[in-house]
Specification:
With 109 residues, the chain is of the alpha+beta class. 64% of the residues lie in helices and 13% in strands. The protein has a three-stranded antiparallel β-sheet with strand order 1-3-2. Helix 1 crosses helix 4 and helix 2 packs across helix 3.
Length: 109
């Protein structure tokens, strides 16, 4: 697995929580929104994470009519998911700050 894939795998759940916190989304829509932000994630990667987050009670899904085709399962955050999102943001900032500092000190390369 490439370094890029490993880094993305480590932050994917948190990024998905951010998007779901903004609006209810269905799986394919979620993968498209991740791609809009430059995170190239396949649907095949998104659905297992959605299932795990639902099992962990971070999100809930409800079937809703689709304007085209069969019903879609839309996901929204639970209270536990909102707490997890807050922790993700804190942990991300704790990691981002020192890594950014390390990279800035290494600008001469």
């Amino acid at each position: 697995m490439s370094m890029h894939s490993q880094l993305l795998k480590g932050i994917l759940e948190g990024c998905m929580l951010v998007i779901i916190s903004r609006n209810e989304v269905y799986g394919y829509e979620l993968s498209m929104k991740l791609q809009e932000y430059g995170l190239s994630v396949s649907e095949g990667s998104v659905y297992p994470v959605l299932l795990r987050m639902q099992k962990d009670n971070l999100i809930e899904g409800s079937m809703q009519p689709s304007p085209s085709g069969p019903n879609r399962k839309y996901y929204h955050l639970t209270d536990k998911g909102a707490d997890a999102l807050g922790l993700f943001k804190t942990h991300w900032e704790d990691i981002q700050r020192p890594v950014d500092q390390l990279l800035k000190k290494d600008d001469h390369t």
